[in-house]
Write a structure and sequence with these properties.
Blueprint (H helix, E strand, L loop, with lengths): L9 H8 L3 H8 L7 H14 L5 H8 L4 E6 L3 H4 L3 H16 L3 E6 L3 H12 L5 E5 L7 H8 L3 E4 L12 E5 L1 H14 L5 E4 L6 H13 L8 E2 L5 H14 L5 E4 L2 H13 L9 E6 L2 H4 L7 E4 L2 H18 L13 E3 L2 E3 L5
Parallel strand pairs: 1-2, 1-3, 3-4, 4-5, 5-11, 6-7, 6-8, 8-9, 9-10
Antiparallel strand pairs: 10-12
């Protein structure tokens, strides 16, 4: 084992800069009241000595940990297989990194995981939380509220109606679904089916509502429930073909579901889009551009949703600082969607 050099201290920085220890502390912790010329001398001494602030000591001064918990209410097998989560996490990570904050990833799969996450949040390790992929019966919101941790949600929580204190970032799921189904109807399709997402999530419910907005008189047999996965799309597509073999279009709740539906249509000899037109939702390019044929889909900016979640949370945390009391409180954001036409419809 090699010997390591002692870490530079505040006192060493103060001696190098020719200022007091208190002045160095104010500069490295972002305090005010230090003349520019002294700030520059301290920063130069910090760089020359390679001083790294002690995070625990810094937290005592700033009351900030510069760390944010990102909580995904899904099992590991789903999170690391679904590119949706990778895109959203990338957006979150970029925004947090730009503001020198650490991302702490927490996944939940069962009751034990919920208790573990609750204990971690209550322990004061992070400044706030970003939570997405919630299900309607998920206990996480109540646990987070008890912990008193500022939170921004990805997707509209099902219990948030009328609550101004709930901040979330979402896409126009209902409007995007309407655009998709109207496009299919504009192609002359009359037997338009819908494969839903998991209906214990508001995004799936909103997309189903958008389908019904356009297809108010549709045969109920043209709706099949799935779970946002390729396997779910396959099962639902087989179910639809058994019930309604004359269907001529499918709006799938996401691109992964659509990819499963396309496989079944191909296996059963249906030509896409000649016999059956197909539209997905998300525009995850690793999926939508590689299906056979390439997938027409509704685009939502998943990475930007992640960035906005982090931005809203950090804005709220800054607002809690005495110097930011006049700032406008963060409010929820709903991003527009766009229909992207490819070969499937």
């Amino acid at each position: 084992m090699t010997d390591t050099a002692p870490r530079p201290t505040l006192e060493a920085v103060a001696a190098r800069a020719g200022v007091s220890r208190a002045t160095v502390s104010r500069v490295v912790n972002g305090g005010d009241g230090v003349r520019d010329v002294l700030v520059e001398r301290v920063r130069k001494a910090v760089e020359e000595l390679g001083y790294v602030p002690n995070q625990a000591a810094r937290s005592l001064v700033t009351r900030r940990h510069d760390a944010v918990a990102v909580i995904v209410a899904e099992p590991e097998s789903r999170v690391f297989a679904d590119p949706f989560f990778a895109l959203q996490l990338r957006g979150i990570s970029k925004e947090l990194t730009a503001h020198d904050n650490q991302l702490v990833l927490l996944l939940t799969e069962g009751r034990d995981d919920h208790a573990r996450v609750a204990r971690y949040l209550a322990g004061g390790h992070v400044d706030g939380a970003l939570v997405f992929s919630l299900h309607l019966d998920d206990p996480l919101p109540e646990l987070i509220q008890r912990a008193g941790v500022p939170t921004v949600f990805g997707g509209r929580p099902g219990w948030s109606d009328g609550r101004s204190d709930v901040v979330y970032v979402d896409s126009d799921n209902r409007g995007g679904a309407r655009d998709a189904v109207r496009h299919l109807a504009g192609l002359g399709r009359t037997r338009i089916a819908h494969i839903t997402g998991a209906l214990d999530q508001t995004s799936a419910v909103d997309r189903l509502d958008g389908y019904r907005d356009v297809m108010a008189d549709a045969d109920p047999r043209l709706i099949a429930e799935a779970d946002f996965t390729p396997a779910g799309g396959e099962r639902a597509m087989r179910e639809l073909l058994d019930r309604c073999p004359d269907l001529d279009a499918v709006f799938a709740a996401n691109d992964l579901t659509a990819s499963g539906a396309l496989r079944v249509l191909r296996e059963t000899g249906r030509r896409v889009p000649d016999d059956v037109a197909v539209i997905g939702f998300d525009d995850m390019q690793p999926v939508a551009e590689q299906t056979d044929p390439p997938l027409t889909t509704v685009r939502q900016d998943i990475e930007e949703m992640g960035r906005l979640m982090a931005r809203l949370l950090l804005h709220g945390l800054d607002r809690a600082h005495p110097d930011e009391t006049a700032a406008t409180p963060p409010s929820s954001v709903v991003l527009p969607t766009t229909l992207v036409r490819r070969a499937s419809a």
